[in-house]
Write a structure and sequence with these properties.
Strand content: 5-15%
Number of strands: 2
Number of domains: 1
Shape: elongated
Order of helices and strands: EEHH
């Protein structure tokens, strides 16, 4: 891991990242942000699973999948930082 206090989110591959995680953020803040993203995807998938698949077209499915992927990747990035912070020195 680099020495920068900020770690870019990895969901969007770009040469100059605009969204960063502060590796020195309080643990509860890292956890709350990860939880919010994972919960959003969970609720999205629960809503989606209660619908008939035949009602959705390919574009809608692609948009839902892309949204879920970005939110889950952000949540994983936050949980990775949280995990690094919880490791004994």
């Amino acid at each position: 891991m680099s020495h920068s206090p900020y770690i870019p989110l990895t969901a969007i591959d770009c040469t100059i990242p605009a969204l960063l995680i502060d590796r020195n953020a309080p643990l509860d803040v890292l956890h709350a942000n990860a939880t919010a993203r994972v919960l959003a995807v969970t609720q999205l998938m629960e809503t989606f699973s209660s619908r008939e698949v035949q009602e959705a077209d390919a574009v809608d499915l692609k948009h839902l999948a892309a949204t879920a992927a970005v939110l889950l990747r952000d949540g994983c990035d936050l949980l990775n930082v949280l995990g690094w912070r919880l490791q004994p020195s």
